Amino acid sequence: MGAGEAARVRSVLTKHSLETVCDSARCPNTGHCFQCGTATFLILGPRCTRACRYCAIEGAPSDSLPPPDPGEPERLAAASAEIGLSHVVVTSVTRDDLPDGGAGHFAGTIRALKARIEGVTVEVLTPDFRGSPEALRILADAAPDVFNHNLETVEKLFPLVRPGASYALSLDVLAAYGRLRPETPLKSGLMLGLGETARDLEQAISDLRDGGVTMLTLGQYLQPTKAHWPVARYLHPDEFMHWKEIAEAAGFLSVASGPLVRSSFHADAGFKRCKGGKLSPSAGS
Prior knowledge:
Layout: H1 3-15, E1 19-20, H2 21-24, H3 30-35, E2 40-43, E3 47-48, E4 58-59, H4 72-83, E5 87-92, H5 103-116, E6 121-125, H6 133-142, E7 146-148, H7 158-161, H8 167-180, E8 186-192, H9 198-210, E9 215-220, H10 237-250, E10 254-258, H11 267-276
Parallel strand pairs: 2-5, 3-4, 5-6, 6-7, 7-8, 8-9, 9-10
Antiparallel strand pairs: 1-2
Helix pairs in contact: 4-5, 5-6, 6-8
């Protein structure tokens, strides 16, 4: 695999008029993942109703966004089959303008994938749906194989870098989904280098584990443009290894930790590790 495979993936995405978070969020691993024949699909359009200060995705007023594209789930499933995916990661922008926050569109996408590709596993990375129990039920009924909602940062930084979101609400969303689908792995991710302290990070890791999360990603925050939140510091790779060990000791079954790790980086391998592991009796429930 190499440049030819990356070109093929881009060609398939263009053919089916699909967005990827790889491009929209300026992920540093885009070339690597495309060369491996993988991509993380971005549904519900390329513009977001929130204005997180770390994110490269373009924001927009709620009244300016179009309704969900009804043909997108089938096109995404067709593209996934054409690329040859067996584990598909689907994420979205936040759509606070939609009554269900886009949960129904996620559900339709999951069902389209499972109908098109035999044995496919589907990982969703969702917004918080403003904590809507109905939105979470809609998603749970579609039964994704992994439910991911990123915490992104530590509690003290939420009002600064995620002013439209809530640390407590994000933890509640993860725990609430876990109660609906206790057999489904819960996943979350944190960016490091935003200005958190070691104690802040220890608390966030503990809070996630207490909420039932068993899969964790830890990566270096990279400032998309000069207009975004600045990098407070760059962590040495040894520090990422340290935090991986801390998280594993806390009971996480799958921990991906490194400067270029992102939420869906080698997601299929993380899912396999999690499904093959067993929870530590001393870990949170």
